[in-house]
TrEMBL record, chains A, B:
It comes from Aspergillus sclerotioniger CBS 115572. This is Class I glutamine amidotransferase-like protein. CDD domains: GATase1_PfpI_2. Keywords: Glutamine amidotransferase, Transferase. It holds the Pfam family DJ-1_PfpI. InterPro entries: Class_I_gatase-like, DJ-1/PfpI, INH-QAR. Residues 11-185 form the DJ-1/PfpI domain. It comes from the Eukaryota. One of its GO terms (molecular function) is transferase activity. PANTHER family: ARAC-FAMILY TRANSCRIPTIONAL REGULATOR, THIJ_PFPI FAMILY PROTEIN (AFU_ORTHOLOGUE AFUA_5G14240).
Amino acid sequence: MADQPSSTPLRIGIILFPGFQALDAFGPLDCLNDLSRTHNLTLSILSSTLSPVSTKVPLLPNTISQSILPTHTFATAPDLDVLLIPGGLGIRDSGPAIQDAISYIRAVYPKLQYLITVCNGSALAAIAGVLDGRRATTNKKIFDEVAALGPKVDWVPQARWVVDGNIWTSSGVSAGIDVILAWIEEVFGEKVADDLTNGLEYTRHRDANIDPFAKVHGL
Amino acid sequence: MADQPSSTPLRIGIILFPGFQALDAFGPLDCLNDLSRTHNLTLSILSSTLSPVSTKVPLLPNTISQSILPTHTFATAPDLDVLLIPGGLGIRDSGPAIQDAISYIRAVYPKLQYLITVCNGSALAAIAGVLDGRRATTNKKIFDEVAALGPKVDWVPQARWVVDGNIWTSSGVSAGIDVILAWIEEVFGEKVADDLTNGLEYTRHRDANIDPFAKVHGL
């Protein structure tokens, strides 16, 4: 297996906060980890402090969880080309970790090539104002809760993912794998995306408009 | 959202090692994280030391990665009911982290209710000897490499997952989500598994015998 060729890296960042949904983050990250075997990527894992970030939702203290190490705070984040925002019930918290994330998204968005959200990660982008006037989607089980946070956003209730300009928003949790593979196909080509998909033995949703979970959740 | 009821917890453990595949671990873990909102679970994250465990494959130093905090070493691991073993290219390493994992699997298996492997995590179980005489499956892209490590195992080339006694082995990476949901259905019932699946907006492989990736990878 060849390690990646040298070239100007694509600089990717991901925002983590207490109570992020593990698969929202690690679905896309696993695809990018594998992509980095053949393409030059950097990854910055951003949070409000450098302390480990737990998936434990503050309001659900008796759940099991995992803790991930950030590489940078929002204050020390390097320049990025792509920013990923996972969701999770931790977004319901109003603490400084969430507020810092929202401020960072608002400040950094104009300098990004792409913004990609998973699940209710789109709520943070909506509160930051960067989705105003855009088409976007989110988790289908809590669609109304998220939509209420972005009254100027054109929320799409039936979509596996939505692309509007340089913003890619996906539906809930596992839809993050589909949106990142669709984005990789757009940026790196179909063969690269298909090779990754086959390596992950993942059965992709390939049509952004087909969304079985909108109906499941009554939308 | 109700937090879990009090009851005797089901004690789950997962083995991590340098170069584990992120989605092998976090697909099943995310399902279990969500399950723990309604059912009493504990989780022990086991590794050879308490240092953060990176997904970076030692032989591929230029790739991007994430680091996870273990909760216990193999030497301090509490009693478990269920052990999860993810895969990853780090299994190709012969260092102490992998050797310690194999020794631990060999020692702990007789005390487990269930052993669940994802991808080439089955290679560790095979080397530990606990798959001898059993039907099992693994990643399809490197099927022959893994099968050679367990000459006394009845390797199944075409299966999304295989159940033999209390051992559940799955195919590559994302098949870990299918095997854990099938296991949750077996242990906690169909409604619990379906509710989790819908919450994750995941399109399950529901038939263990249908495996499109065996053909993709020439098996």
